[in-house]
Write a structure and sequence with these properties.
alpha/beta; six-stranded mixed β-sheet; 7 helices
């Protein structure tokens, strides 16, 4: 706790706007009711805030609990005077809404983008298996064409969002 306070004080004195990463975790994905949300400074990979709430039972759903936890964490940091300009998150629309209320830029974690693209790739291969009589030749062609797609998509995404 003391280390977290010192870290926040150092960040406040530096006056630098922060780019942070968030990812909410539940104690159990199906029946869990405890949500923990670490906020990690992307400059040095240190946790600048961590909020745990035991409210899923009261809130009724994980996304409502996660939203409430994020609101609580952002409020805490803003009240301390820290300026967060960008949050990297795992592509949840309710998080985008909350960040917009704070005028914080929302970026999506590339791991989730790649996971989505690979899911589409698997769907395409399954469709080819179902619809093709000569799957081996057609599958090889499809794999050759589609295997580069995630890399191209990732490069376009990085270029579009000025990421290196």
């Amino acid at each position: 706790m003391e280390q977290k306070i010192r870290l926040q004080d150092d960040l406040l004195r530096s006056g630098k706007p922060l780019v942070v990463c968030i990812d909410s975790h539940f104690d159990n994905s199906r029946s869990g009711f405890q949500d923990t949300l670490p906020i990690i400074n992307m400059e040095d990979d240190r946790v600048i805030e961590m909020i745990t709430q035991i409210t899923r039972k009261e809130m009724g759903s994980s996304w409502k609990t996660e939203s409430q936890t994020l609101e609580k964490a952002l409020t805490c940091l803003v009240e301390k005077g820290l300026v967060i300009v960008e949050v990297i998150q795992d592509d949840k629309s309710q998080v985008d809404v909350i960040l917009a209320q704070y005028n914080i830029v929302s970026q999506k974690d590339l791991w989730y983008k790649c996971k989505h693209i690979m899911g589409k790739f698997k769907e395409l291969l399954q469709e080819k298996r179902r619809s093709s009589k000569d799957f081996s030749v057609e599958a090889a062609t499809t794999i050759a064409q589609v295997a580069v797609f995630p890399v191209q998509q990732l490069k376009e995404y990085c270029k579009e969002h000025n990421l290196q």
